[in-house]
Specification:
By secondary structure, the protein is an alpha/beta fold. The protein folds into five domains: 30 residues, no CATH class; 126 residues, Ribonuclease H-like superfamily/Ribonuclease H (Nucleotidyltransferase, domain 5); 88 residues, Orthogonal Bundle (Endonuclease III, domain 1); 187 residues, Nucleotidyltransferase, domain 5; 108 residues, no CATH class. Helix content is 37%, strand content 18%. The chain has 23 helices and 21 strands. Strand 2 and strand 3 form a beta hairpin. Helix 3 packs parallel to helix 6. It is elongated and about 130 Å long. Keywords: Endonuclease, Hydrolase, Nuclease, Nucleotidyltransferase, RNA-directed DNA polymerase, Transferase. This is RNA-directed DNA polymerase. Its EC number is 2.7.7.49.
């Protein structure tokens, strides 16, 4: 230790090195202090060993004097940089250190690397350098390239850099020891074990080795984790290593650490991780059940409609087909169209329903032709209930989607000339009407017509023609029997399909009104052509649940006050939603008290799917 007098002498010597005594005697302290009004230059240089920079300002007498210095060593990664990248790094690092003095003022960067000056005008840059120059766009600066011999002052600093003594590099074990030393509960246990006053249970559960407190477990001794260290531990083993899932994160932590209800805490932490919520997809069992549409044994009680196309423009100018399927008989009608406009769609539907009668309800997707005000007026005036699918849920209109596939296969295999595909449609439609359906057991035509010449069935009970000797009445009776058997077959097939479907899936999450959720549908668009979105967020939000519609469907709205807010409402399926947690505490209410780490939280049985399905028979997307 230096004495008072020696200390004063050393301090005076250091002052004289930094600011000559002649200036101190004249009171010229201000000439060595930064001034925002003075002309400013930043001299930089770099070597494999380090980067350096000196901030100069021009004094009133015209002299340039140093105001501040920076020098640091390069790390092992930076040491392999190209010399051009090192010189650019010196500029960036110096500006970062002197940012408070350089923002808002014009200054000149002086470097002995001509490539750095040329970078300002280049279009194609190395990604790392491009990021650095983007950072520098906030500064008002120019770059000057002087001869190398004029940069000896800063070159000396780059070749003799200061060690990074200011960087804290504490080993994990040492950090954890300091955490235990600050925890009252841990120190109380350590003291009891050291003084020999601990009871048998305490001795059986804990031990002290190397000054650290360990918990005895069946898998071996594990470091005791104080409450204040839990979040830091999860950041290290989840956030910093790529956001692994609950199971893998838990297994990794259990190798060295132990604390009560670890699995529950890990599950809550990862469930409430916003980065995981927005960026990760859904894996494993799909969270949805099948909800078969209730079918009445009446032709055209429910009609399924959809547009298929576009195809190649035919010689007749057609591009699309409008497909109409009867939900009970599977009777399919195909109308060619030139557009998918509402006007042409309504015209074609008038032709179909004018011949077979208007259905009680029609089910469609959310194509522009079906969501317009004109279409809504068309169905409302005729007392038809219009059901719109949930967004991005084609399975909700599976009757017509299945027929679309049949039509495509038939046209692809039976059409030799792409310009005449619409001429083949009558033959395709005839075949679809007369082939037996696997669900009903008979062809659509047999359920739609009687057997006498294919005329429409007259179901008026007890009425028969004067000259058919009862044949008409018998045909109608057979038709009713076929429809009854078809209805039984459909119900049986629907139950079999639901059991098979639900066996591979789990019950969808149920949401309540005003719950906050994230929505996958908002991120399904491809966006700009050529833009790679592999690392983009898979979910968007948060949105608020406005109404539960049944059959795992919800009406969601945007939340006012969220960045980029724009009023928006949509009907979506539950499997495209994810619960939004603002904090780990928000996940506590739905996580439960399971102190496990095997990923079985929320295990679902087929019976659960069946119970949920029975609560609602409306098709997905049905409007309230």
């Amino acid at each position: 230790m230096l004495g008072g007098l020696q200390h004063e002498k050393v301090l005076a010597y250091m002052d004289d090195l930094l600011i000559p005594s002649s200036h101190r005697r004249r009171g010229d302290w201000n000439t060595w202090i930064y001034s925002e009004k003075a002309e400013t230059e930043l001299h930089t240089d770099a070597s494999k060993l380090g980067v350096a920079g000196i901030l100069f300002q021009k004094q009133a007498n015209g002299d340039w004097r140093p105001v501040m210095y920076i020098s640091r060593m390069t790390n092992i990664h930076e040491q392999v940089y190209h010399s051009y990248e090192l010189e650019t790094l010196a500029v960036v690092e110096s500006i970062r250190r002197f940012r408070v003095y350089l923002v808002g003022v014009h200054f000149k960067v002086v470097t002995d690397c001509s490539a750095v000056r040329a970078t300002m005008t280049k279009k194609d840059l190395v990604p790392r350098v491009a990021r650095w120059w983007m950072e520098l766009q906030q500064y008002d600066m120019e770059v000057e390239y002087p001869p190398g011999e004029k940069m000896r002052h800063v070159d000396a600093l780059s070749r003799n850099p200061l060690a990074n003594v200011g960087v804290v590099n504490m080993a994990e074990g040492h950090w954890f020891l300091t955490v235990q030393l600050q925890d009252n509960k841990a120190q109380k246990i350590v003291a009891q074990l050291a003084e020999g006053v601990a009871n048998k249970d305490l001795k059986a559960d804990y031990k002290v080795t190397g000054g650290r407190l360990y918990r005895r477990t069946k898998a071996g001794d594990r470091l005791y984790v104080p409450a204040i260290a839990k979040f830091n531990l999860l950041r290290m083993y989840h956030d910093d290593i790529g956001h692994p899932g609950v199971r893998r994160c838990l297994e990794l932590i259990q190798q060295e650490y132990c604390f009560l209800k670890m699995a529950r805490f890990v599950d809550k932490y990862i469930t409430s991780c916003l980065r995981c919520a927005f960026s990760k997809g859904e894996y494993g069992r799909k969270a949805r059940c099948l909800h078969p549409i209730e079918k009445a044994a009446i032709p055209f009680d429910t009609g399924h409609i959809d547009h298929l196309g576009p195809f190649s423009r035919s010689r007749r100018g057609n591009l699309y087909v409008l497909v109409v399927v009867d939900g009970f008989t599977k009777f399919t009608l195909i109308k060619v169209t030139k557009t998918v406009s509402t006007a042409e769609t309504v015209t074609k539907l008038r032709e179909v329903f004018g011949e077979f009668g208007y259905p009680r309800r029609v089910i469609s997707d959310r194509g522009l032709a079906f969501t317009s005000k004109a279409f809504a007026s068309f169905v409302a005036e005729r007392g038809v209930k219009h059901v719109l699918n949930a967004i991005a849920t084609p399975r909700a209109n599976g009757q017509v989607e299945r027929q679309n596939r049949t039509i495509l296969d038939a046209l692809a295999t039976g059409t030799e000339d792409e310009l005449s595909w619409d001429e083949k449609l009558p033959d395709v439609m005839w075949g679809m009407k007369n082939m037996a359906n696997s669900a009903t057991g008979v062809s659509p035509a047999q359920l739609m017509f009687t057997l006498n010449g294919g005329r429409m069935a007259d179901l008026s009970e007890g009425v028969k023609a004067a000259n058919d000797n009862g044949a008409s009445f018998e045909a109608e009776k057979q038709l009713l029997n076929r429809r009854r058997r078809a209805k039984e077959n459909l119900d049986r097939a629907g139950e079999t399909m639901r059991t098979r479907y639900d066996k591979r899936r789990k019950v969808a999450t149920e949401y309540q009104k005003r719950d906050l959720v994230l929505w996958r549908g908002a991120s399904t668009t491809t966006g700009d052509k050529g833009v790679n979105r592999k690392l983009s967020n898979r979910y968007d939000g948060p949105y608020r649940i406005n109404k539960a519609l049944g059959s795992d469907r919800y009406k969601i709205t945007t939340v006012k006050g969220v960045r980029g807010y724009k009023k928006f409402t949509a009907v979506v399926a539950s499997d495209s939603l994810r619960r939004y947690y603002g904090s780990a505490g928000g996940a506590e209410n739905v996580t439960g008290d399971n102190d496990i780490g095997d990923g079985t939280i929320g295990e679902v049985r087929i019976a659960d799917c069946k119970a949920v399905s029975e609560r609602a028979n409306r098709p997905a997307g049905e409007a309230e």
